[in-house]
Amino acid sequence: MAERGSRRRRAEIVRLATTSGLASVDELSRTFGVTASTIRRDLAVLTAEGRLARTYGGAMALTAHPESPLRQRVGEAFAAKRAIARAAAALVRPGETVLLDAGSTVGALAHELRSCPGLTAVVVGVTALQELGDADGITVHCLGGTLRPVSGGFVGPLAEASLERLTFDRAFLGADGVTTDGLCEADLAQTRLKELMARRAGAVHVLAHGAKLGRRPFHAWARLEGGWTLITDASADPAYVGRLRAAGIAVVVADGAERVVPFA
């Protein structure tokens, strides 16, 4: 009976990893009401059987999964994204020019920046545009290009040409996955644009909640030259945070508990 329950649980773990792209040990432990050590044994069995690939803090499906639409991602990991957004907003100073990537976490940052005096924002996606389009005292430029409906971001030659005429105090980038190799995205148009964005900014900040660390859901990569900072949340696996720091990547962990006073 116990073995039958284990088989059912492992089959469900594979299903969850296939549909969501990443299965976290802590989340699976809560979902199935078993200990973390039991989940780790399940993942070891599934990895040995070739049904999953292990990641830091969990496992992921071996086959690529569909890119989640923006409207779905907006509601995911809401508290983590808000904590990250508040920590990122605290870095921005009045009068700066910032580049805001597409995506739900950067959209949350745009919401926090609505009251930043004298801000000039260059936006690469619809989330930041919707947040800042009617904000008083903020100048908004839209990068333009070809819209990717699934992500709400602009890509392509028009977006790339616009970047060549601009520089930024800071760029805030999103990602589908963050590893020591760089940023993982669904297609090459996104990764090429992120590399160009990073080159035009004085400081580069990547916003990604903990479930995205060590994640490789797709096969397109952006490699960021020079130093950059990852801003993540308290759910991030400490061991993987340590690996990122050892690779020379600065990491800020926002726990959401502190009172952030931006625009000082």
Concise description?
The chain has 10 helices and 15 strands.
Q: Low-confidence parts, pLDDT < 50 over ≥5 residues?
A: none
- Helix percent band: 25-40%
One letter per element, helices H and strands E, the order comes to HEHHEEHHEHEHEEEHEEEHEEEHE
Distance between the termini: 61 Å
CATH architectural group of the largest domain:
3-Layer(aba) Sandwich
Task: Describe the protein.
- It is a single chain.
- This protein is an alpha/beta fold and 264 residues long.
- A hairpin with a 2-residue loop joins strand 2 and strand 3.
- The strands form four sheets. The protein has a seven-stranded parallel beta sheet with strand order 6-5-4-9-12-14-15, sandwiched between helices. A three-stranded antiparallel beta sheet has the order 1-3-2. Strands 10-11-13 form a three-stranded antiparallel beta sheet, covered by helices on one side.
- The chain has ten helices and 15 strands.
- Helix content is 38%, strand content 23%.
Question: What keyword list fits this structure?
Answer:
alpha/beta; Arc Repressor Mutant, subunit A; Rossmann fold; seven-stranded parallel beta sheet; three-stranded antiparallel beta sheet; DeoR/GlpR family DNA-binding transcription regulator
Give the SSE map:
Blueprint: H1 2-20, E1 23-24, H2 25-32, H3 36-48, E2 52-55, E3 58-61, H4 70-73, H5 78-89, E4 97-100, H6 104-112, E5 120-123, H7 126-132, E6 139-142, E7 146-148, E8 153-155, H8 157-163, E9 168-173, E10 177-179, E11 182-185, H9 188-199, E12 201-207, E13 220-222, E14 229-233, H10 238-246, E15 250-254
Helix pairs in contact: 2-3, 5-6, 6-7
